[in-house]
Design brief:
Elements lengths: L3 H4 L4 E7 L5 E3 L1 H8 L9 E8 L5 H17 L28 E5 L3 E4 L5 E10 L8 H14 L2 E7 L4 H18 L10 E9 L4 H4 L4 H11 L4 H13 E8 L5 H4 L11 H16 L5 E2 L2 E2 L2 H17 L5 H32 L8 H22 L3 H34 L1
Parallel strand pairs: 3-6, 3-7, 7-8, 8-9
Antiparallel strand pairs: 1-2, 1-4, 4-6, 5-6, 10-11
The structure holds guanosine-5'-diphosphate and magnesium ion.
C-alpha cells in the first residue's frame, strides 16, 4: 500500500472524531489503511483500549504498551528491558483543552506477534480523549467510553488515586447496557467481554503498595466492600460481563512526570516503571483476540466493526442497547457466513487442484456433501445460540449453493475435455 499513512512514520491517528453537533464520525479511509493492510488483514486482532478522565496519564501509560509491542515485533526472542536510555514516546500528552482532538485515536501500525503456540496474532492500541471531562457533555463522554468498551478485548480503565463509586458509575451504566447488547450472541464462556484492567494512578495506600498482589487485592476489595446496593450491582455486573478482571496500582511517577513533561525512563520513579512493565507483560503476553460472541475478529473486520458501531451510536442519541445489539449480531452472523463460504471454496478448490479431467457427478456431490457437513459441524460447535445458528446456516446454504454451481460448471468443462 503506497499511501500517506504507511509511508510516513508510525504515529497516533484519529479514527473517530467528535463533530460539532455531538455526532461522531469514523474515518473510513484511515481505518482501511490501518486494519486492512495485507500484512495483518487476516490475523486475529487483539484490541487494547484505554479510557478514563482527561489528563490522568492515559497516553503516557499507553507508551509502555507501545514500547513492548515495538520490541516484541522486532526482537521476539529478546527480553524486553526498560533502561535509562529508553524514551517512551508515541502517544502525545495533552496539555490544554482542544475540542478537535476529542474522540478516539489508534496507533497507525498494527503489531504482529508470534505467540508461544506458534500462532501469529496482531495488536492494535487505541487511546481515547475527552472522557468524563467536565467540559465535555456527559453523553459525549459516555459514548466515547461505550465505544472503547465495545471495541476492546483488553479494556484499561484509568482512574486517579482511588476507586470510589463515582468513578465506577459510568462503567457500571455501560456494563448494564452491554449485558443486554451481547446477551443474544451466545457461545464462548457466555461473558460479554474479555479483559478489564482497572488502573489506579497516584495511589497512596502503603499497605497495598507493599504487597506484590496489592493492585489486584485493592481492586477486588474496593469492589467487594459492599455498602451500597448500587456498588454491589456494579461489582456483580463486572464479574458477569468480563472474563477476567485485573487491578493495577501505581505510585506517583515523580515530579518530572507530574509537573514537567518527560518521556525519558530515567526521569520516572523506578517503582512506577517496574509496575508498568509488569502490567504490560501480564496483559499482553497471553492476550486473546477480540471476539464478538463466539466469533473471533480479524484485523480486516475491524473497519466495518467500528463504522457500524459508530453509525449505530449516532442514530440512537439516547444510548440504545437494542440497536447496538442488532448491529453486533448482524456483523457476527455475516462474519461467520463469509468464513464458512471461504472455507467451502478453499476445500473445493483443493479438490480440483491439478485435476485434468472432471469428476463423476456422484463423486462431485460426495465431495460437496462432505465439505458441507464438516463446515456445518464446526459452525455448530461454536455457536451455541440456536436462532443465530439457524440464521448462519440458512445464509451459508444460500451462498454455498451459488458456489457449488460454479464448481459444477467447472467440472462440466473438465468432463468435456475428457470426452473429446
Ligand atoms: N500525577 C501524575 N501525572 C502523570 C502520570 N502519568 C502521566 N502524568 C502527567 O499527566 C499529564 C497528562 O498526561 P496524559 O498522558 O496526556 O493524560 P491523558 O489526558 O489521560 O492522556 C502529563 O503531563 C503527564 O506527564 C501519573 O501517573 N501521575
Ligand atoms: Mg491522552
Amino acid at each position: 500500500m503506497n499511501s500517506k499513512l504507511s509511508t510516513s512514520e508510525d504515529r497516533a491517528v484519529q479514527i473517530i472524531k467528535l463533530e460539532s453537533n455531538a455526532e461522531f464520525r469514523a474515518k473510513k479511509s484511515v481505518l482501511l489503511e490501518i486494519y486492512n493492510d495485507e500484512r495483518v488483514a487476516d490475523l486475529p486482532l487483539v484490541v487494547v483500549c484505554i479510557a478514563g478522565a482527561a489528563r490522568k496519564g492515559k497516553s503516557f501509560i499507553l507508551n509502555f504498551f507501545l514500547d513492548y509491542l515495538n520490541h516484541m515485533e522486532k526482537h521476539p526472542t529478546e527480553t524486553w528491558v526498560l533502561n535509562d536510555n529508553t524514551k517512551l514516546t508515541g502517544f502525545e500528552f495533552q496539555e490544554g483543552e482542544d475540542p478537535t482532538t476529542m474522540g478516539i485515536w489508534a496507533w497507525s501500525h498494527v503489531f504482529v506477534i508470534e505467540q508461544e503456540n506458534g500462532r501469529k496474532i496482531c495488536f492494535t492500541l487505541i487511546d481515547s480523549q475527552g472522557t468524563f471531562d467536565k467540559n465535555t457533555g456527559f453523553k459525549t463522554c459516555s459514548t466515547i467510553f461505550a465505544l472503547t468498551c465495545t471495541f476492546s478485548s483488553i479494556m484499561c480503565f484509568n482512574v486517579f488515586t482511588d476507586l470510589q463509586e463515582d468513578k465506577l458509575s459510568t462503567l457500571a451504566v455501560f456494563v448494564e447496557h452491554a449485558k443486554r447488547i451481547f446477551d443474544n450472541l451466545g457461545g464462548g464462556s457466555g461473558k460479554v467481554f474479555q479483559d478489564l484492567a482497572i488502573i489506579v494512578r497516584d495511589f497512596c495506600h502503603k499497605k497495598y503498595l507493599d504487597d506484590k498482589n496489592g493492585g489486584q487485592k485493592y481492586v477486588e476489595n474496593s469492589l467487594g466492600i459492599v455498602k451500597v446496593d448500587e456498588l454491589q450491582s456494579t461489582r456483580d455486573g463486572l464479574n458477569e460481563s468480563y472474563e477476567r478482571l485485573f487491578g493495577f496500582i501505581f505510585p506517583n511517577p515523580g515530579k518530572k512526570v507530574s509537573m514537567e513533561k518527560t518521556t525519558a525512563v530515567q526521569d520516572i520513579d523506578p517503582e512506577f516503571v517496574e509496575r508498568a512493565k509488569e502490567m504490560v507483560e501480564k496483559l499482553l503476553s497471553q492476550a486473546e483476540a477480540k471476539s464478538i460472541g463466539p466469533t473471533v475478529l480479524r484485523s480486516k473486520n475491524m473497519t466495518d466493526y467500528i463504522l457500524q458501531n459508530v453509525k449505530c451510536f449516532n442514530e440512537n442519541q439516547e444510548f440504545a442497547p437494542q440497536a447496538v445489539q442488532i448491529v453486533n449480531r448482524n456483523l457476527m452472523i455475516n462474519l461467520e457466513v463469509s468464513r464458512a463460504v471461504e472455507t467451502y471454496n478453499k476445500n473445493m478448490d483443493e479438490a480440483f487442484l491439478n485435476r485434468k479431467t472432471g469428476f463423476e457427478e456422484r463423486t462431485l456431490d460426495d465431495i460437496h456433501n462432505e465439505t458441507f457437513a464438516k463446515i456445518s459441524q464446526d459452525v455448530e460447535n461454536h455457536i451455541k445460540n440456536k436462532e443465530i445458528l439457524a440464521e448462519v446456516m440458512d445464509k451459508f446454504g444460500e451462498h454455498m449453493t451459488q458456489s457449488f454451481f460454479k464448481y459444477y460448471e467447472k467440472n462440466e468443462l473438465l468432463v468435456e475435455v475428457r470426452v473429446y
